[in-house]
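Chapter review: from sequence to fold.
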Amino acid sequence: MILGNREIRKALTEGNIIIEPPPKEPFDSTAVDLRLNDSILLPKKGLSLSFDLRQKGIATTLSQFYENHLISPAGGFVLQPMQFAIANTLEYIKLPIKANTPCFAARVEGKSSLARCGLIIHFTAPTIHAGFNGTITLELMNLGSYSINLYQGMSICQLIFERVEGEIDFSPSQFQGQKTPEGS
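The token string follows.
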């Protein structure tokens, strides 16, 4: 069941969903907007490599092969056509698992206004599992024909919350507590 804005407010008030800093009102009918943080990671140019996805520790691998670029508060960052980048949300999300209280998971989704310009926010894995805490990593791709200006603090994606049914055995991911786009 997807939560409506009244149920989202209730879960935030009761501490069953925690978003820091708190999201700006008004919420859409079934989602909360999240904002772009102040940096973006771009693949280093001129490297010849291949990711071995069987290996653990993708955050360490990404930090070696990507360069961090601060997003200028005034000028923003220009994402060129067919350019890939990784960024994260300004907001830190917590979906606690507590005994005898409702438990929630979420899905990160793009915004239609950005998609119409060619901006993809994530390719796969939209699920934010119950028990997760951290910023949300975004895989950004400009599939459009024109450059897209990105600014820190702009609404970049939205979270859709769902109530989890049944008891949960918490299983933390390698990205638990992440504060950077690469997952550390």
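Two observations follow directly from the output. The two ends are 31 Å apart (CA to CA). The helical segments are 5-13, 58-65, 112-115.
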